[in-house]
Amino acid sequence: SYSVDISGSNYNHFLGKKIGDSVDGIFVGDGEVSLGGFKLEMTGGSDLTGTPMRSDLDGGGRKKVLVSPSTGFKGHKIVKKKGGRYRYTYDGLRKRRAFRGNVISSDTRQINLKIVESGNKTLSDIFSSSSGDDAGEGDGAE
């Protein structure tokens, strides 16, 4: 996975898009690090506080939702017992968690993308030609 900063008019292109929408790769990166020719699909993201986005929540705001183990909730509790820490999974465990909706807004700080169609160059060629400040290993496109 690679990390790329998106700013300016490229960032404005993502505003209002939903998780699952396709985007042209020309809007990701600048100059030689641009992913022109690639087709990308938005798979998720998070806001400025680290709150994850969920594809089943409409809108761009924060909402508190009662969830069972899925995106944003692992479904186990850490219990200290006999000098150690153990993870126990209880049947029917649910928790109220805050999530961000599925629309990219001005509060979104991280956007996760996956490649649907490849371009002429490979990703290793694109990111090896750039300097260390513009791109590197990370969780997704920012």
What features would you describe in this structure?
This protein has a domain at about 1-60 and about 100-135. β5 (about 75-80) and β6 form a beta hairpin. The protein has a 3-stranded antiparallel sheet with strand order 2-3-8, with no helix packed on it. It has 2 helices and 9 strands; from the N terminus they run βαβββββββαβ. About 10% of the residues lie in helices and about 35% in strands.
Structural key phrases:
disordered C terminus, two-stranded antiparallel ribbon, 142 residues, 3-stranded antiparallel β-sheet
Task: Briefly characterize the structure.
The chain has helices at residues 9-14, 123-128; strands at residues 2-4, 22-24, 39-47, 62-67, 77-81, 84-88, 95-100, 108-117, 135-137. The protein has 142 residues and is mostly beta strands.
Proportion of strand residues: 35-45%
**Average pLDDT, to the nearest integer?**
84
Helicity level, as a percent range?
A: under 10%
Radius of gyration: 18 Å
By DSSP (H or I, 4+ residues per run), the number of helices equals 2
> Alpha-carbon distance between the termini?
12 Å
Overall geometry comes to: elongated
Helix/strand class: mainly beta
How would the blueprint of this fold be written?
Layout lengths: L1 E3 L4 H6 L7 E3 L14 E9 L14 E6 L9 E5 L2 E5 L6 E6 L7 E10 L5 H6 L6 E3 L5
Antiparallel strand pairs: 1-9, 2-3, 3-8, 4-7, 5-6
